[in-house]
Amino acid sequence: MKIMVISLGGSLIVPEKIDYKFLEDFKHTLRKHYGNWKFVVVCGGGTVARKYISILRADKQPEKQLSLAGIMATRTNARVMMQFFGKEANDALPGDMKDVKNELKKNNVVICGALRYTPHSTSDGTAARLANFLGGEFINVTNVKGLFTANPYTHKDARFIAHESWKQFEKRATARTYHSGQHFVLDQEAAVLIRKHKIKTYIVGDNPKNIDKILGGKKFIGTSIFG
């Protein structure tokens, strides 16, 4: 059975206006592929985490405390998604990668948040580490359709990138300075890990049809990172 680790952005789980249809379509997309794939869904903190972090940053708390607040937001989002998937997913929140692996033996879907504090890391880093640990591939689901040369929301001339090598992407990601609550398609640690361990990686937006196409080996709208 193949394994796909999915990093699900927190802003897609809990946007300003809840998008139940997206969540329902996401669940049905994974369900469609249970015969060939098992899934690990790593939940991000999104807007909730960034708001918590902004409170502590204004209070001049150290970076670790900001990160810990973000981690708790990812775990809250994970618990909600566990309830949303019901009996199809795990009923206990994993505490480490061994827990995830054990739960994967019993469930089609294992849902978690960030597993532990790691400096300069987000839930994307957790997902990349899990993909390596489990020998799987990696999909990052975010609020843009893939990788761009710049933030498409603030740069109208940003160019979409359909494919990039591991090495090129690592260079692009690590050129940025890390900060808690950052907003980039994959964090710096994840970029290093997918290059180091040659993890086939995809970045897609909020249309589950593209996840369906990746799982089915079909052409999709998004970015592939490998080679």
Summarize the structure.
This protein has 227 residues and is an alpha/beta fold.
Question: Helix and strand layout, with pairings?
Answer:
Elements: E1 2-8, H1 10-13, H2 20-32, E2 37-43, H3 46-58, H4 63-85, H5 97-104, E3 109-112, H6 123-134, E4 137-141, E5 147-148, E6 160-161, E7 163-164, H7 166-174, H8 188-196, E8 201-204, H9 208-215, E9 223-225
Parallel strand pairs: 1-2, 1-4, 2-3, 4-8, 7-9
Antiparallel strand pairs: 5-6, 8-9
Helix pairs in contact: 2-9, 3-4, 6-8, 7-8
Report on the structure:
- The structure is a single chain.
- With 227 residues, this protein is an alpha/beta fold.
- It has one domain: Acetylglutamate kinase-like (Carbamate kinase).
- The chain is 44% helix and 16% strand.
- The protein has nine helices and nine strands.
- The strands form two sheets. A seven-stranded mixed sheet has the order 3-2-1-4-8-9-7, sandwiched between helices. The protein has a two-stranded antiparallel sheet with strand order 5-6.
- The longest helix is centred in the first third of the chain and has 23 residues.
- The radius of gyration is 16 Å and the shape is globular.
- The mean pLDDT is 91.
Whole-number tally of structural domains: 1
Q: Which structural class should the secondary elements be placed in?
A: alpha/beta
Q: What is the strand arrangement across the widest sheet?
A: 3-2-1-4-8-9-7
Radius of gyration: 16 Å
Order of helices and strands: EHHEHHHEHEEEEHHEHE
Oligomer: single chain
Helix content: 40-55%
Mean pLDDT: 91
Tally of strands: 9
Largest sheet: 7 strands, mixed
